[in-house]
Write a structure and sequence with these properties.
single chain, 235 residues, mainly alpha, two-stranded antiparallel ribbon, 3% strand, elongated
Length: 235
Amino acid sequence: MGTLINVAAIIVASILGVVFKRGLPEKIQKSVMFALGIGLVAISLGIFLKYFFYIENNVIKTQGELMVIISLVVGILIGEWIDIDAKLSNWAESIEKKYNLPPLAKGFIAGTLIFCVGAMAIIGPLQDGLYGDMSILLIKSTLDFVTALVLASIFGIGVIFSAISVLVFQGSITLIFMATSDFLPTAMIDSVAMVGSILLIAIGINFMELRKVKVANMLPALVIAVIYYLVMTLF
């Protein structure tokens, strides 16, 4: 459901961008981005605390401290070594420069790259598929609405077709995790949720422009969290 809202937001914004031929003023864009950043940090922090704290014998305890640290440190080391962020950026730029695309195709390519390449496009549908939690995708929908409005005012109606890419990409992730959620161990899901929520906090920091964080380079931390769980089950 969250992905469908995301798709609808892109479609509506694309139409409005074409009709009015103007993007939102930069001042409003920055204000919206800052508000989205605060909201994303608050929601993500709530998700993290939900799995980090638990009550046992009327005593509040914590769990997953070592897993979180190891996942983030090892994950960022791998991400920086591969430099996922730079590779994604270079790939996007090369596509834009290599092909002399007509405006329709340019709008589709630009929208697809912006809306589908990023941590929110992965973690959002993951949360939706595992827990039925659309909160991250709702924030992404708001962000994509603003972005699509601006893109459509520049590239035209081609941006609207990037909604198909979002539907296929995010929808597939959601459906996969919906189908497998009953078979995945709860502890492993909780581990991924905790690490994923920290990545989302980093995205919120980017939105607020407090610091530039290469969140794409942190994505391997999600895989490390799963590996950590599998290793610990052997001991």
